[in-house]
Design goal:
Distance between the termini: 6 Å
Protein name: Rieske [2Fe-2S] domain-containing protein
CATH superfamily: Rieske [2Fe-2S] iron-sulphur domain
Oligomer: single chain
Number of strands: 10
InterPro entries: Rieske_2Fe-2S (IPR017941), Rieske_2Fe-2S_sf (IPR036922)
Pfam family, one: Rieske
CATH class: Mainly Beta
CATH topology: Rieske Iron-sulfur Protein
Radius of gyration: 15 Å
Largest sheet: 6 strands, antiparallel
GO molecular function: 2 iron, 2 sulfur cluster binding; metal ion binding; monooxygenase activity; oxidoreductase activity, acting on paired donors, with incorporation or reduction of molecular oxygen
CATH architecture: 3-layer Sandwich
Number of domains: 1
Keywords: 2Fe-2S, Iron, Iron-sulfur, Metal-binding
Shape: globular
Length: 123
């Protein structure tokens, strides 16, 4: 496994992201509550730069007019078609009630480590 320097801890403060290049791949490195996560910066739908999309909350609702923001800063929304992915797992967020032909959809997630105030992505 190779590791690539993403930058210093101070360059990726809590609640932010940094996009890096590693072996020809564009990778978004996120700091969520002091933990670092890395995603491939490509939406599997049509290839948009996923990590340039909005970082948002997961919104739940028990009915009309009632909504709750959960998991602040843990969801990235594709800038082209608004597909949403969990930054921590790389999994697509979908409405489980919707039924249609299914396809495997994933975003690659990479391991990240912090050593001597340097953030590394492991491919």
């Amino acid at each position: 496994m190779k590791r690539f320097l993403a930058g210093k801890v101070s360059e990726i403060p809590e609640g932010s992201k940094k996009i890096i290049q590693a072996e020809g791949r564009s990778v978004g490195v996120y700091n969520i509550a002091g933990q670092y996560y890395a995603l491939r910066n490509t939406c599997p739908h049509q290839g948009a730069e996923l990590c340039s999309g909005i970082t948002a909350s997961y919104i739940t609702s028990s009915g009309p007019g009632d909504f709750v923001y959960e998991r602040e800063g843990e969801i990235v929304r594709c800038p082209w078609h608004q597909w949403e992915f969990d930054i921590k797992t790389g999994c697509m967020i979908t409405d489980p009630k919707m039924r249609t032909k299914t396809y495997d959809v994933t975003v690659e997630r990479y391991d990240v480590s912090v050593e001597e105030n340097q953030v590394y992505v492991h491919l």
